[in-house]
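subagent[fold] <- orchestrator: predict structure for attached chain, return tokens only, no commentary.
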Amino acid sequence: MNVVTTKLELITKINRYKERNQTIGFVPTMGYLHEGHMKLLEEARKDNDIVVLSIFVNPLQFGVNEDYDSYPRNQQRDEELAKLSGVDLLFSPSVPEIYPTEPSYTVKVQSRVNVLCGRSRKGHFDGVATILTKLFNLIKPDRAYFGMKDAQQVAVIDGLITEFYFPIELVSVPTIREADGLAKSSRNVKLNEKDRNEAPVIYKSLSNAKNEIAKGERDKEKLKALITTTISQETDGEIDYIEILSYPNLEEIEVIRGKVIIAIAVKFTNARLIDNITIEVK
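subagent[fold] -> orchestrator:
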């Protein structure tokens, strides 16, 4: 595995791959790798000649109440996991390497952001779109891999690739779950024993709604009420939001039809958990 830290080193390696007509699969991350990242790398390894992983804690993604400095980092561990996962090239730049000066240009995301988690994280997806525009231009991947655990991010990236004509295939990878259905997340370690026992109810509530849709229910408000009741009766968690939207456009719908997402966020004692399912409804 090659580890590079500068744009020049990266471009030199990428050009060699391109000269050999090797396909490139790209997995962008902010590091502190976990099982979800490993699954993305596994899928990239299956589909491509070369797997490129980036590790960069992007300051543009952090809002005023989000502590960039305390974001977990473990470069040595990440490099070991990347090597075990078959990564060919790891790009791990410093902040000055990516932003040598205050950015003169950033990407402004106009749609798909004023719902779900984006509603309370103003500017977050602008930061995501800006760094990915830089990385896509540097790496020129054939395919880019993202997890559906953050379905809103996948939707935003889908729009970015479409809007700017990036010749990149977006590969969305299903959410990795624990045996009891809880979506795997680095935040799960913050759950106390009681909350950890209750947290799988989140996915249970989504599955109940999916089952009702399969039986013919199309009333959005009834489905949201069903989810609310399940969470309220079986957990002490506080519901942040429940939304049923078109996907990937993330637009309000009156009748459930076509591809839709049912998404939820629930606050427990020490962690706010998100989950979702997408369904194709005829």
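orchestrator: received. Logging for downstream: The chain has two domains: 2-173, 186-276. The two ends are 46 Å apart (CA to CA).
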